[in-house]
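Retro notes
What went well: the complex prediction finally ran end to end.
Inputs used:
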Amino acid sequence: MLIITCTHCGPRPDIEFSFLRALEASHAHIDAAVLHTRTNPVGPSEEIWQHSRGCRALMVLRRHTLTHEILEVRPCPRDTA
Amino acid sequence: MHRQRPRGYSFGRLAREAAGGHAGWQRAWQAAIPKPSYDFVVVGGGGHGLATAYHLARDHAARSVAVLEKGWIGGGNTGRNTTIVRSNYKLEANQRFYEHSLKLWESLTRELNFNVMFSQRGVVFLAHSDADMNALAERGDAMRLRGIDADLLDTGSVKRLAPILDCSTSARFPVHGGLLQRRAGTARHDAVAWGYARAASALGVDVIENCAVTGFDIADGRILGVRTTRGAIGAGRVGVAVAGRTCEVMAMAGLRLPIETHLLQAFVSEPVKPMLNTVLLSGAVHCYLSQTDKGEIVLGGDIDFYPSYSQRGALSRIEQVAGQAIAMVPALARLRMQRAWAGAVDMTMDGAPIIGLTPVEGLFLNGGWCYGGFKATPASGFTFAHTMATGAPHPLNAPFTLDRFERGATINEAGSGPTPHLH
């Protein structure tokens, strides 16, 4: 189980959260190929999660995709989600 | 290299070896040392990579083929699934591909001289509502039009097939009927990897374990070879079949793919007496149920819904699948679970695999198997070998191109949007 520290509510179990999508670099010039492709790294990955069964806040997680270590949680910038 | 063809497995051989105290058995496949170069290098020693090498040697007279496996044979997703084999698809591309695969499964044990324990015990998709029933009727019609067997069952017929299923009107997931594919079933997953490895090795393929690829040698857009933890290996053509790690390996060739890696879990109960002699699938709640020949109940469900390579699943998914299974088959409630495992699977953006060419000449890709890699193994090897040998896709895998996403030609069986958790 992941313990995710919600930016609003503090540490909560992962079942309260939803992974929405990976935070990919550019959305300025989205074409079909960019829309579908992912970096999908083995290692730290920046992702948008939502505390969907809680306060519903959006946040950016920097999470290791092999160890599941959560390296950073920060509020989601307004223009990202 | 001269290689002695291994003696076949048979009842007579078993009796002779038993008489000799079992001292005469050879290794099932030779432990090969990497050569400086090969005509064909297949990256990934799972079922798909080994089947590809086997078909390259058998169908295309390739005499210089190596399979590179970073761990051990069959240690990845080939040994981490629910072993279900079926071809009950609705879209034509999927029907043709998976039905060809099912036909190959039907003769695979004889073909490989290795018992893959393919058991055509039937697979039933369950309907829990009138809408489900309509969708299954439509799917069944589409299958029969393509010559694939399908029987639409009413509640009573489902009940006769699987008496342990709760078909009462008060069931949490009431059974309105189901769609049965009688020729579908299960197989012994590890045996598939071992059988292909042995058969490929007998045809002269070098099966090289503990050999991880660390990079590609590419010049002027053309593949020249691979770099590995056991040295550089030259290659005329390279095929990558490493589903789960596809993005990591293809990134070494500078490619970014329409794939996200997720965990797909399965788990088994303690062994019990025979209670289920078919495979039950519920699409509406996403739960897979079958019983192994050893008596264990095998359960599978959805992906864990966040990207991961860890091969360690979340407990919340096990709890959810177990709850669904108990609601459908109340007799499971008192069983203890004995093992759980998670495969790191390539989830594509439309739910269909990718088998074909890449922008790098001589570099071919086989991946993106989502929920369905195991059953595809024979056809995947057959078509990928054809693609690598001829440089062009076989008609069966022609729709499964890498560029279908940018062309808008996706193959979306679930009719859902471009996100892995939707299909």
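What we learned: The CA atoms of residues 287 and 325 of chain B lie 7 Å apart.
What to try next: split runs per interface for comparison.
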